Amino acid sequence: MITPIIEIEHLVKQYRKAQKPSVDDISFSVEAGEFFAFLGPNGAGKTTTISILTTTLAKTSGRVTIAGYDLDREMQQIREKIGIIFQKPSLDENLTAEENIRLHVCIHGLYAYRPFYRLMPAAYRSRIEELASVVGLEENLFKPMKTFSGGMQRKLEIIRSLMHQPAILFLDEPTTGLDAVSRSNLWQYLQEMRRTTATTIFLTTHYIDEAENADHVCIINHGKVALQATPQEMKQRLLDRYVLVDAPDQAQLRAELNEWGIDFKANGTGFKIPYQEATPQTLIARLQTPLSLLKVHEPSLEAAYVNLIGAA
């Protein structure tokens, strides 16, 4: 049996003077190479959980292992295996963009420090230029941080987190402040990186559409796990999937649906037919009556998320 790259058992975080735990006895696991989305409303416990997993916040109780290392005893080994993009920038505004990255990689022992960019190893210069082109910062690397907008600072944090090619990349709302093009470019790069290097991606985001392609989704609410499933399972469990059909000869269509024993409801635009299969292709192929309307309703992950959180 393959050991999960992230394994959490009965994790609890109780802040002093708080009446209830911020994280209340949650358990889940993430497989190596997986794209895992950790979702929930503000105050649900997402950032607290990700802070514990990235060794920046102490837990109250529970067991956590990351990349085979125990969180209580092997924090340094865990830090060497992970990359992090936090919600809030953690950059030195007195340095240039490149100097921020150089300081980071040298502190973490990836490269020996050199006082000038041109003296840094070719591998460092190649990597930083590659990542800068992905997020559109190639013309700003040597400008002071004081001149950077919030979106530009976010891009720089993305570069910094990917410099050492981590086994696990924690993304805490990584596209906040990015324009649509930069957001799209970042996700294209992350998916390509995951495909070629088997990097595990652990995402929290308020852009629920960013989790549509996740392998698994875990939703947390009020500090507890509300649901764990694939996006498809989540949509099937929480929302109706149906086909809307209509025909010039409604009587003929109604008779055919009854003949096939197909469950349907009449509405103002024709007939609503629910389906449970992966696609409605088999259902549609059975109909011989000429149609004037055929519309497949495939719910989004965001709609399923809103349905779950709104009902809580």
Give an overview of the whole structure.
The chain is α/β, with parallel strands linked by helices and 312 residues long. 34% of the residues lie in helices and 23% in strands. A hairpin with a 2-residue loop joins β9 and β10 (224-229). α4 (122-135) crosses α5 and α7 packs across α10 (301-311). The longest helix is centred in the middle third of the chain and has 18 residues, at 180-197. The mean pLDDT is 90.
Task: Write out key terms for the chains shown.
single chain; 312 residues; alpha/beta; Rossmann fold; 2 domains; six-stranded mixed β-sheet; four-stranded antiparallel β-sheet; 10 helices; 23% strand; elongated
Low-pLDDT windows of residues: none
What is the CATH top level name of the largest domain? Alpha Beta
CATH topology of the largest domain: Rossmann fold
Structural class of the helix and strand makeup? Answer: alpha/beta
Biggest sheet details: 6 strands, mixed
Q: List the strand order in the largest sheet.
A: 6-7-8-3-9-10
Helix content: 25-40%
Q: N-to-C terminal Cα separation, in Å?
A: 35 Å
Please give a quick description of this structure:
By secondary structure, this protein is α/β, with parallel strands linked by helices.
List the helices and strands and how they pair.
Elements: E1 6-13, E2 23-30, E3 35-39, H1 46-53, E4 61-66, E5 69-70, H2 75-81, E6 82-85, H3 97-107, H4 122-135, H5 150-162, E7 168-172, H6 180-197, E8 200-204, E9 216-221, E10 224-229, H7 231-238, E11 242-246, H8 250-260, E12 265-267, E13 270-274, H9 281-286, E14 293-297, H10 301-311
Parallel strand pairs: 3-8, 3-9, 6-7, 7-8
Antiparallel strand pairs: 1-2, 1-4, 4-5, 9-10, 11-13, 11-14, 12-13
